[in-house]
């Protein structure tokens, strides 16, 4: 007989691994740039394919991390027997638990992510502003990923599977925490 609970736990472990992987690649892409960006510097480098490939990667990886965190929060809440019919309730639950710093900050990240997906800006100062917002919000996503992993480890006895990014993830969390102090 198939153990449905074990399958759900295995799936959550895989989501935790995906969160670590997304966090790692977002952090690495962001680390390639000097922050904050300026419209003037982007205009001067407007034909720098490597720069704009890095910016595109940051956009994609920010969105992917936030989406993967949302799926992981929903699935972990389900395994903790919490109400999962409304994502706002899930966010409020994880805010109360100290995983998400605030629902408002999470929603700001969501708005920034959605604007990038649907807005094709040509004003370099607005492009710089967008990426500076993503850069400011990235530590919130990374710390949320760390706290969510801790909750799953402590309460559900689950870790990321197979754990290929455990060391890198722990290292980037230390870097983010040190830069916040």
Account of the protein in words:
The protein has 181 residues and is mainly alpha-helical. The chain has 7 helices and no strands. Helix 5 (103-118) crosses helix 6 (124-156).
In short:
The protein has 181 residues and is mainly α. Helices cover 76% and strands 0% of the residues.
- Termini separation (Å)? 51 Å
Number of strands: 0
Indicate the structural class: mainly alpha
Note the run of SSEs as H and E: HHHHHHH
Q: Level of helix content?
A: over 70%
Mean pLDDT: 93
Indicate the proportion of strand residues.
Answer: under 5%
**Count of runs of 4 or more consecutive helical residues:** 7
Largest sheet: none
What's the gyration radius in Å? 17 Å
Low-confidence regions: none
Shape: elongated
Question: Helix and strand layout, with pairings?
Answer:
Elements lengths: L3 H27 L8 H6 L4 H31 L7 H10 L6 H16 L5 H33 L9 H15 L1
Helix pairs in contact: 1-3, 1-6, 1-7, 3-4, 3-5, 3-6, 5-6, 6-7
